[in-house]
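Reagents: none. Just compute today. ANTH domain, phosphoinositide-binding clathrin adaptor, domain 2.
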Amino acid sequence: MKLWKRASGALKDRTSLLRANLTSRSMLRNPSIETAVIKATSHDESIVNYRATQHVFTWVRISDECLYRVLWVLFRRMKRTHNWAVVLKGLMLLHGVFSCKVPGIQHIGQLPSDLLNLKEKRGNVNVFIHAYYAFLDQKSTFISLHSQEQMKRSVAFSGDETNEEQKRMLMIQDLIWLQKLQGLLDSLLRIQPKSSQTVNVLVLEAMDCLMIEIYDIYSRISIGIGTLLMKIYPVGKNEAVIALPILQKAKVQGEEISMFFEFCRDIGVGNTSECPKMEQIPEEVVQELKDIISGDLKQPSIENFPKEEVKSVIVVTNNSISSLKTVITDDWEVFEEQKKSNPALISPPVKNNTTLPDLISL
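Predicted 3D structure written out:
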């Protein structure tokens, strides 16, 4: 039965490749792009075609037009298949596409609601896939909304100076985005195989990608908190009231991440041996915020907040505005401290010359 299934899947892939090669070029269709996507999302449950995924990312980085062609082919293939391996590879490929530096990533928004059409009774594998899809949908929406918000801010506060009320407004907006980023991290931490039977080559590959993403997002949250706290201390109580639950949640998420990484180590995810220890937010920092709210703080020690340089899976541009301003990636802000980068998802995107607009920093 397994042999027949493998043969059937291979035949479907060959048929799809033949059709792609016979397709005429049009506004949406490009035979080379379709071939790369098909090879990257094959029915083979035992392997990921890294060369094909890199080929797809190369197309994506050429232009927004190529990005939309890739997405059209990928979404069309995922909607038509009932095979879990094709769908999971498609989600990993989409995850990697989000790491490519082209402006069009910011305009994708909510993913198609009919992207998953699984009919195989794979139980926990299907649960894993649906959780992965839910995260990518949330991330894509986050990227789009955050980009729109930052563009509005760049227009509304385009002057050389902002008054105190504007600064407080910007700070509150930044705190709200940190809360949303923590919600994104919550979605990530929910993506886990529920049993040993769920663990296979493709699931382990997906978990590898998720580990990198988790470390990246938590690093962004930590640096964002550190940057904002330096502004909150001289401002006062109202902002501290908003910031306190963010700090408390960050402490909880730090512990959850440690448990998640330990779980990944137990099931044999490849990146666990290279994953650095997560920095925990000191209890003194939380206590100082409480003291601000109660009015008991005398001398803050915010300089003790850990702000070591962290790694990022997203390759950033070199367009820095100032030490506290940001450079833009394909999805959201990266603080200036985050200039080191990790290998990107599945296959590392190569830097290109696409320059994205600078936005207002935290």
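The longest strand covers residues 326-328.
Action item: order primers for follow-up constructs.
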